[in-house]
């Protein structure tokens, strides 16, 4: 009977994985331009955790706070739009 060693893998969770529930519901390129004044490619590189040179990258703390604010703003805007629909 052999010994089995379990190695603990450290996997960096990308922002894309964290946003999987809403991934296809948002125009991320539009969000990048509107809330970050950055290109879609800049955003997708950060989002996927790999830059254009195949090097690891991620959102800085400030950018994460900015992304959180952008998503909250979008949620508020969607709620206002939904509330404006008359169902009478």
In short:
This protein has 88 residues and is mostly helical. It has four helices and no strands.
Keywords:
mainly alpha
Describe this structure in words.
By secondary structure, the chain is mostly helical. Helix content is 51%, strand content 0%. The chain has four helices and no strands. The chain has helices at 15-18, 28-36, 40-48, 61-83. Helix 2 packs across helix 3. The longest helix has 23 residues, at 61-83. The radius of gyration is 18 Å and the shape is elongated. The termini are far apart. Mean pLDDT is 87; it is low at 5-11.
Question: Secondary structure elements and their pairing?
Answer:
Blueprint: H1 15-18, H2 28-36, H3 40-48, H4 61-83
Helix pairs in contact: 2-3
What's the rounded overall pLDDT mean? 87
Spatial extent as radius of gyration: 18 Å
Along the chain, the helix and strand elements come as: HHHH
Measured distance between first and last alpha carbons = 72 Å
The poorly predicted ranges are 5-11
Q: How would you sum up the global shape?
A: elongated
Strand share of the residues?
A: under 5%
Alpha-beta classification: mainly alpha
**Could you give the count of β-strands?**
0
